[in-house]
Design a protein that fits this description.
Length: 116
């Protein structure tokens, strides 16, 4: 449970979606989503078709501001995925990058996604 909290995030700055971001950043999280990548998919799909993790929750205590219970459940989990789909891509966000009280740095993810 997270009641509108700022959490520590790790961004893959080599991915175009995270262009201009720092490797360690923050994100606003309130009843968001988590993603799991099936390890068996690596055996059945070519590397070009596998989802890429753009952002994940840090693998340490996450809370920077707000309230969270049992953050150890989401530590290290993917929060933003870049998924190939046909000729394009689907960018999955597990947190609200556009919430009125969120960190302005996550707007880059949205605009980079549109450009990408």
């Amino acid at each position: 449970y997270a009641a509108g909290s700022l959490m520590k995030m790790d961004y893959d700055t080599d991915n175009p979606v995270a262009y201009g971001m720092t490797e360690r950043g923050i994100a606003f999280f309130s009843r968001g989503h988590l993603f799991e990548i099936n390890p068996d998919s690596a055996a059945t799909l070519s590397p070009d078709l596998l989802p890429k993790v753009v952002a994940r929750f840090a693998d340490e205590p996450l809370l920077l501001s707000g309230y969270v219970e049992r953050d150890e459940i989401i530590r290290g989990k993917p929060a933003v995925l870049d998924v190939p789909y046909g000729e394009g891509r689907i960018i999955l966000f597990g947190f609200s990058f556009h919430n009125r009280a969120q960190a302005h740095t996550t707007f880059k993810l949205f605009f980079n996604s549109m450009y990408y």
